[in-house]
């Protein structure tokens, strides 16, 4: 609704468990249309997401699965602000477009080649 699109034909999948808040679309749109701080923040967020999608698309073409895995682990680590997190190999395979064995692994900055 914020980008003047009433229905988005997408399936949203979270990568890690977290808490979330929910607001009715009509309430969000009313606040957005006031031109408030919320509007500026949502537009900045949309711009950042678009930039990230473009960068990711450009980077994925020439990269190996191992390089994409390292990038993905670093991005998730930055998002959760933690050096370790749990994720299944199946989820990683889905994110990278590869096959996987169904057991758990631990993601970490060290596994991605970065130990801050």
Describe the model.
The protein is mainly alpha-helical and 116 residues long. The chain folds into 2 domains: 27-62; 63-111, no CATH class. It has 4 helices and 2 strands. It has a two-stranded antiparallel ribbon with strand order 1-2. The longest helix has 24 residues, at 37-60. The radius of gyration is 17 Å and the shape is elongated.
Number of strands: 2
Helicity, as a percent range: 40-55%
pLDDT average, as an integer? Answer: 78
What low-confidence regions span 5 or more consecutive residues with pLDDT below 50? none
**In what order do the strands lie side by side in the largest sheet?**
1-2
| Silhouette | elongated
Q: Tell me about the biggest sheet?
A: 2 strands, antiparallel
* Integer count of domains: 2
Number of helices: 4
Jot down its keywords:
116 residues; mainly alpha; 2 domains; two-stranded antiparallel ribbon; 2 strands; 49% helix; elongated
In short:
The protein has helices at residues 25-33, 37-60, 65-80, 89-96; strands at 84-88, 104-108. It is mainly α and 116 residues long.
Topology:
Blueprint: H1 25-33, H2 37-60, H3 65-80, E1 84-88, H4 89-96, E2 104-108
Antiparallel strand pairs: 1-2
């Amino acid at each position: 609704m914020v980008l003047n699109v009433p229905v988005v034909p997408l399936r949203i999948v979270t990568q890690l468990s977290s808490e979330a808040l929910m607001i009715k679309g009509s309430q969000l749109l009313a606040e957005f249309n006031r031109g408030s701080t919320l509007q500026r923040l949502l537009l900045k967020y949309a711009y950042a997401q678009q930039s990230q999608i473009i960068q990711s698309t450009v980077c994925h073409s020439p990269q190996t699965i191992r390089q994409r895995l390292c990038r993905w682990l670093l991005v998730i680590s930055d998002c959760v602000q933690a050096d370790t997190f749990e994720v299944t190999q199946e989820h990683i395979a889905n994110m990278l477009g590869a096959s996987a064995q169904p057991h758990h692994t631990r993601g970490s900055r060290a596994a991605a080649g970065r130990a801050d």
